[in-house]
Amino acid sequence: MCGIMGYVGSRSAPQVLLEGLKRLEYRGYDSAGIALFLDQHFVLKKSEGRLENVERLFQSESKRLEKATCGIGHTRWATHGKPTTQNAHPHQTGHVVLVHNGIIENYLEIKRDLLSRGHRPNSETDSELFGFLVLESMGSGKSLEAAVRESFAKIRGQCSVVVMSEREPGVVVGVRNGSPLVVARDPQGGVFFASDAQPLLPFSQDVIFLDHGDLAIATDQSLRIVDLQSGEVVHRESSHLEWSLEQIDKAGFPHYMLKEIHEQPGALIDTLNGLVDRDGFEPFTLADQPGVALLRQAKELVLVACGTSWHAALLGKYWLESWAKIPVSVDLASEFRYRNPVIRPGTLVVGISQSGETADTLAVLRDMRSRNIPCLGISNVRRSSISRDTDAVFYTSAGPEIGVAATKTFLAQVLTLLVIAGFLSREHKTLSSAELSRLFEDVIRLPHVLAEGLEHDSEMMKKIEETVNQLTLNGDAASAVKGFFFMGRGYSFPIALEGALKLKEIAYDHAEGYAAGELKHGPIAMLDAAMVAVVLAPRDAWREKTGSNLEEVKARGAKVVGVGESADDQLSHLCDFWIPLPVESRKLDPALLPFLLAPVVQLLSYRRAVLKGTDVDKPRNLAKSVTVE
Ligand code: F6R
Predict the structure, then answer these.
(1) Which of 260, 306, 384, 409 to mutate to test the pocket of ligand 1 (most atoms within 8 A of CB)?
(2) CATH architecture of the region 456-612
(3) Residue 19 C-alpha to ligand 1 middle, in angstroms?
(4) Whose CA is nearest to atom 7 of ligand 1?
């Protein structure tokens, strides 16, 4: 999604803005630009494509431009209008310049009015129109701050903007009205703006997450925050971020995604420690937090999410139903929101979103809350928008995830759902204390088992590499792989869906995830020697049946990659490739095997993407947080 940076102070603005925008690249974008205030005028540098193109535009006059100490920058993810230089932000309208993140829903109406008053927009964007509104308002004598407030009253939609005017040199005004906006005081004097906290970390660890409806007015000497509607000053506490710069660097890995896959054992430990009361004697005791009361009252759960988070929800359903015996339905937020679902009394709606900013998920939660239905969130980002639209949030502690493809945040969400299932099983007395204690001991061991599997010389890692190398590098065009089927049953089914999604998003391969038992109802017709079937067959309650499905795909000539236990001679001999999990199931409850299967499918996709030479951390057409519908 779009990224915003802004700065006013004593540092060189182009350096601050470019450094910040680079740290926002992970969100996904298709064009970028910067506006600097210099010698009483704005200088704009914009380009389609990568940020490097903008950097190049600076080169010939870098000495002069570096003197600028005030400016705004943007990375754009096209919504209204193609990803061209002309549509790239910042947009200048007369003496006003702005960057915008989100959508102006009534833009057609506004455009019609502006055209009828003789204005001629230069771009196809909704964003530029806001500049005309500010220009008109300042034309009638209003200050920049008052003009932004007046203009905001005319638009509908969730968005944030940062605006400057040549008439008020050295003033930067930012509004959060839905899409996140963060400000931080520069210890050297001045203020930073950003759409995300992490680009501010090199400059300050104390940041202020603006609230919905806040307007911040910054100069090199001051920062004031007022309520967008009333104009009255509001006080916002700053938050001290514990994320270190090291945490958001690649730490020697070639890609953030690989680093984040390897960080999963730590993400599991931190998430567990954040959720459960480890001092208590009972297993699965949730640390005292507001969400606990909501869970206790719930008679039924509805889990809503998108993409990878939806896969986490599908997995959570297995534990919640089989352990806690609570009815659970799982829905895609984009479907649920337009379907008029029937919600019975006693239902708790749980929105799962690693970013906490996904438009469809937030819309469902807002709608449910307006109907007085209790809502719980699960998110990795503290103070993200989901906290506004729910009664309580369980935060995962996976740390910042920079790779666009979700990996460690997925496992952290899955663990949170498992812990909730354990907690409810104890509350509902559906599992005995002995069963719960045994499961909890295994949960505590799980990160260590996973860490062993992720050691670079483990059998699991070696086989993943060998398998992908052979599938990708060997053979001529005639034997090239045309597509992948990921299949599994029970707990492995959501992981099959996740494996197919990962491969599509970063390696651009055609891939499908299937419940193994469904294959014979149609898709098996597609199988031939050019197809790869990745069969998830750990030694669990479904292994026998999955084994039969494995034989079916083998008989159709597909290349078979099996994933299961190292000692499973029977299945491994049927497969072209066999990837062993780092533990035998009798040493870990089979319900926890998805935590080991997920990194395998992530790594298969990662390795394939690297060999195909795609942009692993910033795959085409994708964004880290999808703040539009
Ligand atoms: C896939 C991926 C997406 C997200 C989806 C929801 O790797 O990252 O499918 O899972 O856009 O995002 P959140 O969890 O932020 O709501």
Answers:
(1) 306
(2) 3-Layer(aba) Sandwich (3.40)
(3) 25
(4) 405
CA-nearest residue for atom 10, ligand 1, is 308
| 200 token code pair | 């501010």
Structure confidence at residue 157 as a pLDDT band (50, 70, 90): confident
Of the candidates 314, 353, 231, 254, which has an alpha carbon nearest to the alpha carbon of residue 615?
A: 254
pLDDT digits (tens, 9 = 90+) for 462-486: 999 999 999 988 655 555 889 999 9
Tell me whether residue 624 is one of the annotated catalytic residues.
yes
Per-residue pLDDT of 439-463, as tens digits, reads: 999 998 899 899 889 987 899 999 9
pLDDT at site 560: 95
Q: Do the domains spanning 261-447 and 456-612 agree at the CATH topology level?
A: yes
Ligand 1 centroid vs 495 CA: distance in angstroms? 15
Which residue, by CA, sits nearest to atom 15 of ligand 1? 355
Mean pLDDT, the chain, rounded, equals: 91
- Per-residue pLDDT averaged across 583-592, rounded? 82
pLDDT, average across residues 355-362: 94
Confidence of residue 1 (pLDDT cuts 50, 70, 90): low
**309 CA → ligand 1 middle, Å:** 6
Is position 2 annotated as part of the catalytic site? yes
User: What atom of ligand 1 comes closest to residue 306's alpha carbon?
Assistant: 6
Active-site residue, from 502, 554, 618, 624: 624
Please report, for residues 19, 39, 133, the alpha-carbon distance to residue 327 in angstroms, rounded to integers and kept in the order given: 48, 65, 51
The whole-number pLDDT of residue 6 equals: 98
Fold entry, domain 3-249: Glutamine Phosphoribosylpyrophosphate, subunit 1, domain 1 (3.60.20)
The CATH number of domain 261-447, selected from 3.40.50.720, 3.30.450.20, 3.40.50.460, 3.40.50.10490: 3.40.50.10490
If you write DSSP's letter for every residue of 277-339 in order, what string do you get? -TTSSSTTPBPS-HHHHHHHH-SEEEEEE-HHHHHHHHHHHHHHHHTT---EEEEEHHHHTTS
- Which of these, 511, 572, 514, 512, lies nearest to 538 by C-alpha position? 572
Where does ligand 1 bind, in terms of residues with CB under 6 Å? 306-309, 353-355, 358, 361, 405-406, 501, 505, 625-626
Residue-range domain boundaries for the chain: 3-249, 261-447, 456-612
How many Å lie between the centroid of ligand 1 and the Cα of residue 414? 14
617 alpha carbon – ligand 1 mean position (Å): 14
Q: Which whole-number Å values give the CA distances from 117 to 114, 139, 150, 253, 291, in the listed order?
A: 5, 14, 18, 55, 52
